[in-house]
Amino acid sequence: MLNTLHQGIHFSERLIKTALLPLAARLGLAATFWLSGQTKITGLQIDILGGSPLQFGIPQVTDGAIALFQQEYRLPLLDPALAATLAAAAEHILPLLLLIGLATRVSALGLLGMTMVIQLFVYPDAWPLHLTWIAAQLYLLIYGAGRLSLDQLLPRRR
Fold first, then answer.
1. From CA 116, how far away is CA 23, in angstroms rounded?
2. What total number of domains does the chain contain?
């Protein structure tokens, strides 16, 4: 009886560590960055919360997003239009990769870089939120996408 209970607990711990925790990290990060990216574009609207109608078209960065990078974000060394375009692209491509668990470590690293830029140059007082993102990003960087991912299905080079 105790052996069966111990095996059940071990199975539950392994399931959480190798499947559910990385899936939760991937989904949480993907939703956060996707929603942010959706505020920067027109032409392609996929509201994952279901409040807006779907719109499939060619995405274009909004004038408002460029103005935000000019007036509020003011990143050093980057033209605001280029910065807005790069951010919008990253906030759509990297979350999609996280969602399906493909190139997860690369995607997490990209989002970690974005998070550090946001923390250092844009919203330094938002460190509690950014620390939460960083924890999930570091988990995915270190342990990978988990069992419920395309990364797990692809053959690995040794």
1. 22
2. 1
